[in-house]
Amino acid sequence: MKLVDLPTELFLQILTSSVAIRTLKRALRLKLVSKLFARYIEEAIFLSGIVDDSPSFGWSPEFYQFFTYYHATSPRHLSSTGQVAAIYTTIRLIASQLSTENGHRNEERYTFYLSDLCLLHSKKIKGNVTKFPTPELAFQQDLFAYAAYANDLPTVTQLLKGRLDPTSCSTLFGAPLTIAGYQGHSSLLLLFLSPSVPGTPSDKKAWAAYGAVKGGHLSTLNMILSYDDESGNVSISADSGGKMRQFIYQGLQSGNLSIFKRCAELSPCTVDFSSRQFASSRTMVNAATKGHVEVFSYLLGKMGGELVERERALDGNGEGEGVAQWGLLAVA
After folding, report:
1. InterPro entries in the record, alphabetically (predicted)?
2. Which CATH superfamily is domain 132-266 in?
């Protein structure tokens, strides 16, 4: 009997055993064998446990979402204990609370919320986690963060009555203010930025801007920067805590050309695009290595002929290395 003709349970058991002796990269290649392999390979990977202790750096949000969802729903993990298991327990509790009305849980809504919460967790928007005095308050902040992600204004309004701080980073997801910026929820951001909501104005604007940059929302970023400022100007040097600089740095690593340009305009440092040093700078290397074609092409254009002429003069033979070669070196 052929492997693909075996009962599903036995096929999955054999596939899981095959995956367990491979690296994650090699295991993922098995999905190319056939449609049947492609259908069960992710479940086999999770069952094998090879990703449990693997670094998640470089995983796509979609794969990380599947990974989180599997751990949150797999019977073998439901009774697990420890710090990591607590993440999946909290996700299940939030999904259950959101899908329960009049004491009865809607299973279809529960599945939706569970999947959506796993997706939010996979985006890794969170920063430095705030230490909460009680588990109950930490849970409320996690719920607050998801409500901001889902643009759930009624839930946000209800939670704000408990004086929760939208700049405080939840244990699982991040600061509600940053998440609202990441999602581009302008109406929710206006609520968070208002004086009636806890948090210092500069901190709120900085974390909201950081989220908008990370999410690639230029119009939302401009709205945040001009909030409560008739001129629309932003004084970066006045940001003594350096929080505003965080979103500028994030923007200079972005593959979104509009976001990159806006953050370059706001940078407290004047960048000499035509310098030889800039050709090998972190900004240039980042654009090349991450495949940010639009940003890299823009930088090459800004550097332009002046750098080529300098290089030719330095070489003495009239040929020069050329700015494009710096880009190739960066990719290498």
Report:
1. Ankyrin_rpt-contain_sf
2. Ankyrin repeat-containing domain (1.25.40.20)
